[in-house]
Amino acid sequence: MIPDAQPTTFLDALRRIEELTKRIRQGGLAHFDSLEADMAEVREIRSALTQRIAGVRRARS
Fold first, then answer.
1. Nearest Cα to 45, choosing from 6, 5, 15, 22?
2. Rg (Cα) of the chain, in Å, rounded?
3. Are 48 and 13 in contact, with CB atoms under 8 Å apart?
4. How far is CA 24 from CA 1, 9, 16, in A?
5. Which of 39, 2, 12, 44 is nearest to 23 (CA)?
6. pLDDT digits (tens, 9 = 90+) for 7-61
7. Phi, psi torsion values for 9, nearest 5 degrees
8. Is this structure's pTM higher than 0.70?
9. Are the beta carbons of 37 and 23 closer than 8 angstroms?
10. How far apart are CA 1 and CA 42, in angstroms?
């Protein structure tokens, strides 16, 4: 995932995770190469969302 000038919204990020999860389940081990790439993208999105949530919590404290 290439960083954009404008961050992805939470809802868009969650939708992308759902889409990738569906592809992973459908493809299974038969598509191992894309499976690895999809899982890496899911981890990247989750990490970005976790950082945003931590930032919001810090700002509220």
1. 15
2. 14
3. yes
4. 17, 22, 12
5. 39
6. 778 899 999 999 988 988 887 777 777 888 888 999 999 999 999 899 999 999 8
7. -70, 160
8. no
9. no
10. 10
